[in-house]
Amino acid sequence: MPDFTLWDIFRNLLMAARWTVALSLVAFIGGSVVGLALLVLRLSGGPLVGRLVGAYVQLFQGTPLLMQLFLLYFGMAMLGVNTSAWIAACVALTLYASAYLTEIWRGCVAAIPRGQWEASASLALSFGQQFRHIILPQALRLAVAPTVGFLVQVVKGTALASVIGFVELTKAGGMIANVTYEPMLVYSCVALMYFALCFPISLYARVLERKLQ
Amino acid sequence: MNSVLSNPQQTSDSDGPHTQAGAPILRITALRKSYGTHEVLRGIDLTVLRGEVVAIIGKSGSGKSTLLRCINGLEVFQEGSLIVDGKHLLYDNAKAMRDLRQGVGMIFQGFNLFPHLSVGRNVMLAPQLVKKRQAGLNEERARQLLARVGLAEKFDAMPDKLSGGQQQRVAIARALAMDPAIMLCDEITSALDPELVGEVLRVVESLADEGMTLLMVTHEMSFARKVADRVIFMHQGLVHEIGPPAEIFGHPQTPELRQFLSSLRD
């Protein structure tokens, strides 16, 4: 059995960390697109649409991400969709992120005074024009800090994709710990890498928050 | 005075009856509005003529602001009909709603300038998006209107750098930029420090002098007396008394109006 140096462990974890980053980016970008679409639906649609989007948000916020991953991975297979752990993880995390982001942003839009909607409506702007030119630019300023903060949750959330066999940082850590019999060392390295990813983001969120106040 | 308000359609005598001074521009018939079981407007009939200045007075809760906000569809009413400049108010038709709103300017108590846009961009935004006014023309018009309200040098300033009175004058310029046929003023000086009220009222008065149709909810009785052609006293969701200012203020007919006027003098 080959001996693993600390560098071997570290290098292998770094390779796997790329997938954590990739999955985080897909989830965050996909979640943003879906979340924004849901937000527009919620604002422009009738009360029924609003309640449907609300139910969607509750569904994803009220169940563990782990269950969402399981259900999606095995559910898709049962429906006959040939899926990989990567695709299932991307879809599950995208849906999860979209539910949280749409709710965060709804709060930001709700924080814009009613008078802004009324003044722009009085000037005969359409809903799209109101949203694009009046509401969005103002809500964006409010949204930056909590949105970047949520990105940290997404990065940590990707660890759960390990349970459906997707080899990212956590899964790789488990595999390496099994062959090196050094779980403390390996998982410390894993934790360190998550911290190295998340801490700068939190720091950046705080800087942005101060700058935009 | 060389008016920047002048709109060839409005001043030309050769146009149809709709555009002539003295023709009805706003017609409200049997309008009723309620919030749940509480009826705020209980059957309003009102006709306003082109070029007329109408002041609406009354206690808070009498429905005067609600009536004003019904005219450009910010409030939904349940019964009755409302026609502005020949256009029916139709809630379920977004296009018809925008067409109507193009002809109705509104100025709010809280100014409601767009805080992320400069003063000039505030004035130019709606003509650019809605009227597709060409950029050079739009800017020229905006500068003209800002000069008109005495704020020519504030074109590039951000709204939060202006005093309340200045913000409200920008709001007036912003509304004028859409060439409205009628202007609604909803207690536009109520949020201002006393020393800033005068500068806003002077602008409104000059609009009246230039023939703009004005409908204003106001607590400034001396201003209403001076500028209005007609004063409406609203009470419990109804037009309780209506007439020329001299009649309304000098010879109130109903005990409610007498009581309201005397409460102001205390």
Structure description:
Helices cover 83% and strands 0% of the residues of chain A. With 213 residues, chain A is mainly alpha-helical. In chain A, α1 (6-44) crosses α4 (85-110), α1 packs across α8 (183-212) and α6 runs antiparallel to α8 (183-212). In chain A, 35% of the residues are buried. Chain A has a single domain, classed as MetI-like fold, CATH 1.10.3720. Chain B has helices at 8-11, 64-71, 94-102, 119-129, 135-148, 164-176, 194-209, 221-227, 245-250, 255-265, and strands at residues 24-35, 38-49, 53-57, 79-84, 87-88, 104-107, 182-186, 213-217, 230-235, 238-243. The longest helix of chain B is centred in the last third of the chain and has 16 residues, at 194-209. A 6-stranded mixed beta sheet of chain B has the order 6-7-8-3-9-10, sandwiched between helices. In chain B, strands 2-1-4-5 form a 4-stranded antiparallel beta sheet, with helices on one face. Chain B has 266 residues and is α/β, with parallel strands linked by helices. Chain B has a domain at 112-179. At the A-B interface, α5 and α6 of A face α3, β6, α4 and α6 of B.
Q: How many strands of chain B?
A: 10
Largest interface: A-B, 19 and 26 residues
**Overall spatial form of chain B:** globular
Helix fraction bin of chain B: 25-40%
Beta strands of chain A, count: 0
Total number of helices of chain B: 10
CATH topology of chain A: MetI-like fold
| CA radius of gyration of chain B | 18 Å
How far apart are the termini of chain A?
58 Å
The mean pLDDT of chain A is 91
The proportion of strand residues of chain A reads under 5%
Distance between the termini of chain B: 39 Å
Mind summarizing the main beta sheet of chain A? none
Task: Please summarize what this structure is.
The complex is a heterodimer of chains A (213) and B (266). Chain A has eight helices and no strands.
What does the secondary structure layout of this molecule look like, with pairings?
The complex is a heterodimer of chains A (213) and B (266).
Chain A: H1 6-44, H2 47-61, H3 65-78, H4 85-110, H5 114-122, H6 127-157, H7 169-180, H8 183-212
Chain B: H1 8-11, E1 24-35, E2 38-49, E3 53-57, H2 64-71, E4 79-84, E5 87-88, H3 94-102, E6 104-107, H4 119-129, H5 135-148, H6 164-176, E7 182-186, H7 194-209, E8 213-217, H8 221-227, E9 230-235, E10 238-243, H9 245-250, H10 255-265
Parallel strand pairs in B: 3-8, 3-9, 6-7, 7-8
Antiparallel strand pairs in B: 1-2, 1-4, 4-5, 9-10
Helix pairs in contact in B: 4-5, 4-6, 5-6, 6-7
